[in-house]
Amino acid sequence: MKFKYILSLIGMSSLIFFNSSCSKYLDLKPENSTYDEVFWKDGENVNRATLGAYALLRNSLRADRSYFIFGDIASGIVHPGADDWNMNDFSRSGGYKFSYAPYLEGSLWNWTRFYGVINQCNLIVEQAEAMDIKLFEGGEEEKKGYISNARFLRAYTYFYMQRVWGDVLLVKETFKDPQNIPDMTRTPEKETLAFCKEDLLYAIANLQQNSTKSFASKGAANALMAEVCAWEHDYVNAEKYANETLKLGYALEDVKDYRKIWQGNSKESIFELNMLYSESGNEFTEDFFSRFLSSASIPGKGSGSVWKIESEFLETEFDEPEARLDSMSMPFPDNAQVKTIRKYDHVVEYREGKYAVSNNLVLIRLADIILLRAEAYYKNGKAALALNDLNTIRKRAGLKEIQVSGEELFKEIFRERRRELIGEGVIQFDLIRMNMFEQLDEYSAYYSADRIANKGYYWPLDMRNLLPQNELLTQNPWWKNH
Known about the structure:
By secondary structure, this protein is mainly α. 43% of the residues lie in helices and 7% in strands.
């Protein structure tokens, strides 16, 4: 199935009609049977709705740069600049306190926008399933392709929310009347992830291995399934689905071409969201990736708005020369000892003095899955294979192979994930999944046994705004008193 770009994703605001009538805490629209009969008339409109779902996910992830706050700032290896004073408490210097977020409560404590994505996907699944295959130019294959994309996006969204806030509200279908949504208790993680895996099994069975990486594919569905299984510590299936992913033709970029990964559709990318600059659209944004870049990349950019690599992390984790560090970072213009991340440094001057950072947001890539497989191999008692995968990524980085075993091997896999995936919105989730808070001194001082037991690595919910709309909603345990 190929998506038909009759309209750019940039101009999707008129098509994301499902998100335009926000009401109550799930961000749903009232069902309009008359309108539905008009809209769900052919595959072309299902195509439009599916493009809208991708646009909704993209906008949800980049709200207030929350994608990088959740994954990188919260992990302590990236530090915000002086202009982002309201993020200091999230980082190591602030003690990883997620309960102080002035002006950012709407993006960091409120999950409503993600329910807009889920509702869009629910509508696509329900409406497309009810449509006759004759309404699709490509027949049953096209119909199942749209349903698979919606189910993949729904699984990704629920899994992402689960990793940020803990237990979610699992909504499996559209509500007839969003003005009267019943109060709901939070769904146990096991049930939510089982639902995600059902969606992914359908997607694996029905998606093709597309050449473009900005839509769901068989490889992306297998890779996401591997991540879900690893999160559950089901490492047998994590290994299985990682191996299925690696059969599908992906390849590591050479370290000299490292930054091509984020310029769109690289051979290493498995799933990405389009944010490349276009004169006719707005998939790109001027200020999402730019926080990682200094005036060396964007002329005239102030130093106070630049996020920097934590200095202690540089000293301890990059203690030997490597080509990867040179490719993915650069010295601060007026202080060579400070480094910024330059993975997203493809910059376009689209008007005099106006710059767009033209990169895609790569959500899953091959190096990530190879290291995830190393983690699974280790947990499955296959230390030699785990070490081999670890050294594969080290060699690409320009590092020597190492010989390490036992718990040190597992820790080294985590450290390599941090070195490889810094600035890609995933490290905090690695810390949670791999139970690293107590094992590394840099976190153990802030994450007590009590905080870990009460899941204080998840973000608090905005109970002031969410609770009045759902009286059964509960706060994450740690943040009730912190």
